[in-house]
Amino acid sequence: MARRAAASKTATMMDIDARRPDTPGATGDESIYRGISAAILEHRLPPGTRLAEDALGEIFGVSRTVVRKALFRLAHDKIVEIRPNRGAAVASPTIGEARDVFDTRRTLERAVIEAACETADRVALEDLRRLTRAEEAAHAEGDRQSVIRHSGDFHLRLAEIAGNAVMGDFLRELISRTALIIALYERAGPAACAAHEHMALIDAIEDGDTAAAVALMDTHLNEIEASLNLDGGEPPVDLRDVFAGVGLATTPRRS
Amino acid sequence: MARRAAASKTATMMDIDARRPDTPGATGDESIYRGISAAILEHRLPPGTRLAEDALGEIFGVSRTVVRKALFRLAHDKIVEIRPNRGAAVASPTIGEARDVFDTRRTLERAVIEAACETADRVALEDLRRLTRAEEAAHAEGDRQSVIRHSGDFHLRLAEIAGNAVMGDFLRELISRTALIIALYERAGPAACAAHEHMALIDAIEDGDTAAAVALMDTHLNEIEASLNLDGGEPPVDLRDVFAGVGLATTPRRS
DNA sequence: TAGTCGAAGATTGTATACAATGAAATTCAA
DNA sequence: TTGAATTTCATTGTATACAATCTTCGACTA
User: Fold this and answer.
1) Nearest to A71 by CA among A93, A40, A26
2) Contact, B64 CB vs strand C, < 7 Å
3) Residue B51 carries which DSSP code?
4) Low-confidence ranges of chain A (pLDDT < 70)
């Protein structure tokens, strides 16, 4: 509840926090990649926000070379869109893309759950419960950013338990894209807390009830999708484009 | 049967054919990306082959900037491995990674087949048959590279028919990695022709027999995996590393 | 002779400079 | 005043130069 000062104002890249090195060991483009990624995933940078190379370089204290590298990585992750000669922007997934992402997530997460039911040991289950408790706590405190992060970590940890790194990588990408989709298509009302669904999932895994676990995961993802504004007409993306750069300084600061 | 002149000699990057622009409209790093990608997928560049930036730049007539961009894209596709400060090389997937790739392919292709059974129309089926006939022809001619390409196109077209672009993108990556895995773990004997399995698959889709189609796809992928050398001890990758740079000129040509 | 330390060479990582492209603003005409 | 064309500016794309790192070759020592 602290840092969102100007909610009605158009967001700029200044919402990226370059000074907090999310991962200390990171080198080269890694820190800027993570910085932008986190900013997008935690809804500090809304879809459509332009990401100018010079400005980012100044913020992160590196040259455009490194910025471009990070930007292209993000583009491959589909959370940044790069149009040749026209720069990068936070991606604005369409409704169709959103549906495809959820479909693919259901497909992969079903497989993950099935595997996890066989591979999960006591330590894994305890770790999942720890993550879910953290998610509950964040929800109770109204810390939306932490909720997003912990929820993603839960699903990622599940994939890790399942023991398939390829699925894990794909799922990481899908979870990122889901966060972006939620930012775009979230309904006005406050999102329901999904943590108790995670808890039920853990119980089913512990019981070795694969069918129940799969069903719970399906329901979980369906409810998330159903909570979004995916039926409606044109996507908000066009509106954003239309109103882009209204009260927005092109460069955040001119030294 | 024409171009493989020196089979026993260590492959170098000269096997990349830079002059044939696989896609004429390609611009910037796209052509070099496709060039290297095709060379790897068609087994002209075996796993472990070093990919020096300067040499590639000279071959393709661009600066290292563009080469690096292409290389990092390939690294994200997992068909090139980049170790910091130590350069890029054609990736050498481990046995475990190979298993994960096949598992994930089975998961995704099952979903693709299920969807395709509902969405495939007459045109789509005819297109699939055309691709499979081309695959058969290439197999008959002993053109392994075309077989690989056509087989991949078949699975990709299937994903396209299924209508989920996200799954399609993932599958494209998995198909690429599969080609690399086959290059590494292929048994000595000549691979069986998979084209007739593709034909059976098409028939099942046409009949609307989803269960049969899914089963056929499962069998198909299982047979490919079973035809590989995935049980054994240490992967050939280490051997390659050991013998790397034995009779191999560091730079292909020094003008 | 084998092993280790050190220096030279080669290769990658990053920054900067220039070229090309797209966006915006000003001018001119209707 | 509105519209279009041209000029101007900003931003991206590419090449090159320099710095950092790793590898390799050679000399020296035990």
Assistant:
1) A40
2) yes
3) E
4) 1-27, 189-192, 232-255
Strand D contact at CB of residue A193, distance < 7 A = no
Closest by CA to A199, choosing from A126, A140, A107, is A126
3-state helix, strand, coil in chain B (%, to 5): 60, 5, 35
CA-to-CA distance for A2 and A5, rounded, in angstroms?
7
In this structure, is the CB of residue A23 within 7 Å of any atom belonging to strand D?
A: no
The whole-angstrom distance between residue A250's C-alpha and the CA centroid of its chain comes to 26
What secondary structure, in 3-state letters, does A50-98 show? EECHHHHHHHHCCCHHHHHHHHHHHHHCCCEEEECCCEEEECCCCHHHH
Nucleotides of D under 7 A from a protein CB: 10-17, 21-24
Contact A108 B108 (CB under 8 A): yes
Looking at residue B7, its pLDDT comes to 34
B38-76 confidence digits (pLDDT tens)? 999 989 999 999 999 999 999 999 999 999 999 999 999
pLDDT of B139 above 60: yes
Is the pLDDT at B215 greater than 50? The verdict is yes
Residues of A with a Cβ under 8 Å from any B Cβ are: 27-28, 69, 72-73, 76, 84, 97, 100-101, 103-104, 107-108, 111, 164-167, 170, 174
pLDDT the model gives residue A189: 65
pLDDT confidence of residue A28: 80
What tokens does A125 get? Answer: 């289950």
Model pLDDT, residue A17: 55
**Shortest CB distance from B69 goes to which of A72, A100, A166?**
A72
pLDDT at A22: 38
Q: Which of residues 8-67 of A have CB within 7 Å of strand C?
A: 27-29, 62-66
B165 contacts A170? CB cut-off 8 A: no
Which of B166, B170, B180, B225 would best serve as a mutation to test chain A binding (most A beta carbons within 10 A)? B166
CB atoms within 10 A of CB B141: 11
Express each pLDDT in B178-189 by its tens digit. 999 999 998 876
In DSSP terms, A90 is beta-bridged to: A80
Domains in chain A and their CATH numbers? Answer: 14-92 (1.10.10.10), 95-226 (1.20.120.530)
